[in-house]
Amino acid sequence: MPFLGVGLGLLILTGSSCFVLGAFYEHCDFLRNLHELIQEDPYAFYIREKLYATVATAFNPNCLHRMPDSCSRMSEIMKYGFPGLDDIRVYSDFVLSYDRRNRVAHWVYEHLRAPCVKADGTNINRKECWYQPDMSVPSNFRANLTDYKNSGFDRGHLAAAGNHKCHQTHCNETFYLTNIAPQVGKGFNHDAWNQLEIYVRELTESYGSVYVCTGPLYKPKRQLVGIATYSEHTRPTDEKWCVEYEVIGENTVAVPTHFFKVILVESKMSGGHPYMEAYIMPNAPIGKNINIRNFLADIREIEHIAGLQFFNGIRRSFFFGTNYSTTPEIYNNFQ
Ligand SMILES: *[C@@H]1O[C@H](CO)[C@@H](O)[C@H](O)[C@H]1NC(C)=O
Ligand SMILES: *[C@@H]1O[C@H](CO)[C@@H](O)[C@H](O)[C@H]1NC(C)=O
Ligand SMILES: *[C@@H]1O[C@H](CO)[C@@H](O)[C@H](O)[C@H]1NC(C)=O
After folding, report:
1. Where are the alpha helices (DSSP H) in the chain?
2. How is the chain split into domains, by residue range?
3. Does residue 145 have its Cβ closer than 6 Å to ligand 1?
4. What is the pTM of this model?
5. Known binding-site residue numbers
6. Are the C-beta atoms of residues 214 and 158 closer than 8 Å to each other?
7. Which of 298, 317, 320, 329 to mutate to test the pocket of ligand 3 (most atoms within 8 A of CB)?
8. pLDDT, tens digit (0-9, with 9 covering 90-100), for 273-291
9. Are residues 94 and 77 in contact, defined by beta-carbon separation less than 8 angstroms?
10. pLDDT of 240-251, one tens digit each?
11. Once rounded to an integer, what is the mean pLDDT over residues 22-26?
12. Active site (annotated) includes residue 167
C-alpha cells in the first residue's frame, strides 16, 4: 500500500502543476488530498515537507491557516464564480471579500443546505458565539468592538448566524467582525432584513440548495448643492449625484446606505435551471409588516453600484427566470 500511496501522491503532484494557473481553490483540493494521503500513508507523512515545498508556490495562504476541509467547501460555495477578488477570506462555511477602506466586507457568499438552516434538532449554542475582531486582518484595516459600542448601530450579520447551524464553529465564525456591518436595529435588522433572511431559509428548506451573496451598498443619491440664496431660480444643474455615508468609531467603519442580497435557488430537478432574484433594502427603519418583494431589484443595478459581477460562470439566459412578484408564484412555478 505505501507504494500505491506515494504513486498517488506523485500523481497529485504532477497534476498540481497544471493547477498553478487555474482557480486557486483547486490548490485547496490538492491540499486536502495531500492531507488525506498523509493520514493514510506513513511514508507520505515523512516526505510531506518535500511535497509541501514542491507545491509551495501553488498554496493559497488562506488554505494553509484553516482546515483543508474548508478549502474543498470553498470550491462548493464559490461554484458560480467570484463577484470580485479583493482580499478573499475563507471561513469554514462562508467566503468573503474584505474592503479594507470601509472595514466592512464587499460581499459574503454562502451556500445554504436544508439541514443547516433548520431551527430545531441542532446542537449549536448561539450563547457560545462572541463578536470578535478577525485578528488576521492587519490592525490598521481592522474594525473592533469599540467602534460599534455606543454607535447607535447594531452589529448586523451579513452571513446570518441562523444559516449555519450544522456546526458550532460555523456559527462562531459568523460573529467575526469581517462578517458584520453597522445596521439600523429597530425596523431594519430586527424586522425587514430579518424577514428577508427568514425567507432565504424557507427557500432553502423547500428547495434544498440555495446560494446567497450579501453585501453593503454605498448608493449615490441626487442632492441639491450650492444653490445661491440670492438666486430666484433653481436650475437643474444645481442638483448633483453624491455618495454620503456615516463612519463610526476610531477605525471609521462605514455605515452602508443600503444592503443587497442576490439569491440563486438550485432546481430540484436534475438538469433544471436555477432561479435567481435580488434585493436592495435601505439601511433605515423600514418596519415590521412589509412585503419584502417591494424591495426586489435588478441584479445589474447592484453590479453597477457595487462594482461586482454575479454568477459570472453562467449565461443569464441559462436562468429559469427572475423576479416573481409574489412569493407563492415561486413555490407554484419553480421546481
Ligand atoms: C480599537 O481600535 C482603536 C483604534 O485602532 C484602538 O485605539 C482601541 O484600543 C481598540 N480597542 C480594542 C478593544 O481593541
Ligand atoms: C466558539 O466560540 C466560543 C467563544 O469564543 C468558544 O468558547 C468555543 O470553543 C467555540 N466553539 C467552537 C466549536 O469553535
Ligand atoms: C426585477 O424587479 C425590479 C423591481 O420591480 C425591477 O426594477 C427590475 O428591472 C427587475 N429585474 C429584472 C431582471 O427583471
Report:
1. 2-19, 25-40, 42-46, 48-54, 61-65, 68-77, 114-117, 145-148, 168-173, 193-207, 299-306, 327-333
2. 2-64, 75-333
3. yes
4. 0.78
5. 189
6. yes
7. 298
8. 888 899 999 999 998 889 9
9. yes
10. 899 999 999 999
11. 50
12. no
